[in-house]
Amino acid sequence: MTHLYIHIPFCQRRCAYCDFTTYAQLEDRIDAYVTALCAELRMLAATYQPSPPASPEAAAVGPTLFFGGGTPTMLNLKQFERILNAAAALVCVEQAEISSEANPGTLLNHEYLCGLRSLGVNRLSLGVQSLNDATLRRIGRIHDAAQAFQSYQAAREAGFAQINLDLIFGLPGQSLAEWQATLAAVMTWAPEHLALYALIVETTTPLYTQVTSGQITIPDDDTSAAMYEMAMEQLAAAGYVQYEISNWARSGGRGTEEQGNRGTEMLPIGAAYPMLPHASSCHMPLTSLPVCRHNLAYWLNSDYTGAGAGAHGHSHPRRYANLCGVDEYIAAVGAGRLPIAEEVLLTPQEWCAETMIMGMRLNSGVSAAHFAARCGRSLEATYGPILAQLAAEGLIERNAERVWLSPRGRMLGNQVCMRFV
Hints:
GO molecular function: 4 iron, 4 sulfur cluster binding; coproporphyrinogen oxidase activity; metal ion binding
Family: Belongs to the anaerobic coproporphyrinogen-III oxidase family. HemW subfamily.
Helix content: 25-40%
Number of domains: 2
Organism: Candidatus Viridilinea mediisalina
Shape: globular
Main location: cytoplasm
Number of strands: 17
Keywords: 4Fe-4S, Chaperone, Cytoplasm, Heme, Iron, Iron-sulfur, Metal-binding, S-adenosyl-L-methionine
Strand order of the largest sheet: 9-10-8-7-6-5-4-1-11
């Protein structure tokens, strides 16, 4: 197996905007959950049927393991070690990019961070979200801006050379000036990677109730669009390359001499991605970037396995989702069965659409060679008239090798993607 996602659904407190499979105040279930998770990983290893990467682009990504949540850093080091030992039957952990999401409010212990690094975790993704304390309180985060910076510094001191910061724009009460101040501050930290997401008010969250009842207000669409444009301009000026709709990697990020194993190397994408169109102001070829390789596998529509409550996975042409409840997940695995709640077999047309929808998020877009390898059919034969129309509308650009979103198309990405469905 090349890509494995592991879901840790525990949080100290559930944020007001969160619609993920997460649970607060279930610390007493963590150890039983880890036992079940390790058992699921062993079952997956026993039934796994390997398949080769779909294309040279997919093969270049290499093995990845991603701990998401929830708050994976609520696990103690022994629990992390147990999971990694079980995962080793599925992924070559010695060569893998091993990422863990982390809440800055749980990540101030130097010994813990050093322990994570020694276990092989080589990339951290810190859920900073904002550097305005009032905004952080409003959305229910357990950390403040000072703790976010302290966590970042502590991770550096523990030897992490690949750090991502998650930020959200369009938050309740957030102004353009506040967003600009957050961007300016995090750029002085010089993280290797930034993931910037527009707030989505999901109907099942407390935030939805607060917004619809008029208790709080959120920026309108025009203001959120201005925040996105501001981020693109300021990050480009600071040397960050936007390689995906929501993701930026720092040009000249930390090199492999500081990092110790292949899992933390900057992805050598020069051969697979001879040009990332519009990725920088001068359209220069990019030979290496400290990208998130696990997410890159998603955008290439690669096969991946998900483990844990609420985890999703797919292998062509099957997609599946696990049971979401912690107790029902533990019970299912304890009964000796995979905890799958739903399975879907995708049609060839659906598989083609997913390959386009995911791939068009990348600034490099979708190559004809990758599409043909992944879908078993020609990109032009499948979508030629649609691509011609999108190009005529100025929403995409293309050449003989690939198709990608134009700058205008990036602002209207959802509308573009719907054309492939």
